[in-house]
Design a protein that fits this description.
Number of helices: 6
Strand content: 25-35%
Distance between the termini: 27 Å
Helix content: 25-40%
Mean pLDDT: 96
CATH class: Mainly Beta
CATH topology: Pnp Oxidase, Chain A
Number of domains: 1
Low-confidence stretches: none
Largest sheet: 9 strands, antiparallel
CATH superfamily: Electron Transport, Fmn-binding Protein, Chain A
Number of strands: 9
Length: 210
C-alpha cells in the first residue's frame, strides 16, 4: 500500500477504543512499526519540549532512541539547554508527527536519567565522528566561529586515537509517560483523539474532542 492509499485508509477507518492495545507503549509499537514500513527519513524524529525553573518553554527535534514498557529514551549533552532544563524541572513532552499518514502521538511524562551502563552501551555503538562530536561541542553555548568548533573536533580526534570513552556530561534520559495521546486525522477536521492517562498502576483511555 502506497502512502496516499495508507493515509486514505487510516482517515476512512479512523481510530476506535476497541482498536487500542492494553498499554500506550504497546500501541506506540504497533503504530511505529506501520510507520517504519513506509521507509520515512529518520522514522524516530520527535519534538522534545522542556521548561526550566523560569517556566519558559523550549522545543527542539530529537531522535528517540528507544521505547519500551518504561517509556521513551533520548540522549544528549547534560550541560545543554535541555539538559539544564531537565535538571531544574524533570518533566517533558514528546510529539511525533507523521503527516504523510495523518497521525500524531503526544507524550507527557516525568524524566529521569538513564544508568551509566545504558548510556555507555548506546555511546559505544555511535559512529566515531559522533562520539568525537560529543566531546568537541559545548552544546547550546555561544562560540566564536565554526573554525573554533572544527579545531575542538580535531583536538579530541587526536586525543582519542583508538576507542572514544563516553563524556561524563553526556547520557540518556527516560521519559516515563503520564499520558499518551494517539491522534488520527479524519475528514472535516473531526479527528479521532484517544488518550491513555495513568491512574495508579493502570491506564484509563479517554476520547478527546478534536
Amino acid at each position: 500500500m502506497d502512502l496516499a492509499a495508507m493515509r486514505e485508509h487510516y482517515e476512512s477507518e479512523g481510530l476506535d477504543e476497541s482498536d487500542l492495545a492494553p498499554t500506550p507503549l504497546e500501541q506506540f509499537t504497533e503504530w511505529f512499526a506501520a510507520w517504519v514500513e513506509t521507509e520515512p527519513f529518520d522514522a524516530n524524529f520527535a519534538t522534545l519540549s522542556t521548561a526550566g525553573a523560569d517556566g519558559w518553554p523550549a522545543s527542539r527535534v530529537v531522535l528517540v532512541k528507544g521505547a519500551d514498557d518504561r517509556g521513551f529514551v533520548v540522549f544528549t549533552n547534560r550541560h545543554s539547554a535541555k539538559g539544564l532544563e531537565l535538571a531544574e524541572n524533570p518533566r517533558a513532552a514528546l510529539t511525533f508527527v507523521w503527516r504523510e499518514v495523518a497521525r500524531q502521538i503526544r507524550v507527557v511524562g516525568d524524566v529521569e536519567q538513564l544508568s551509566d551502563a545504558e548510556s555507555d552501551g548506546y555511546f559505544a555503538d555511535r559512529p566515531r565522528g559522533a562520539q568525537i562530536g560529543a566531546w568537541a561541542s559545548a552544546q547550546s553555548e555561544v562560540i566564536a566561529s565554526r573554525a573554533e568548533l572544527d579545531a575542538r573536533w580535531a583536538e579530541f580526534d587526536r586525543r582519542f586515537p583508538d576507542g572514544v570513552p563516553r563524556p561524563p556530561h553526556w547520557g540518556g534520559y527516560l521519559v516515563r509517560p503520564r499520558s499518551v495521546e494517539f491522534w488520527q486525522g479524519r475528514p472535516n477536521r473531526l479527528h479521532d483523539r484517544l488518550r491513555y492517562r495513568r491512574a495508579g498502576d493502570d491506564w484509563v483511555v479517554e476520547r478527546l474532542a478534536p
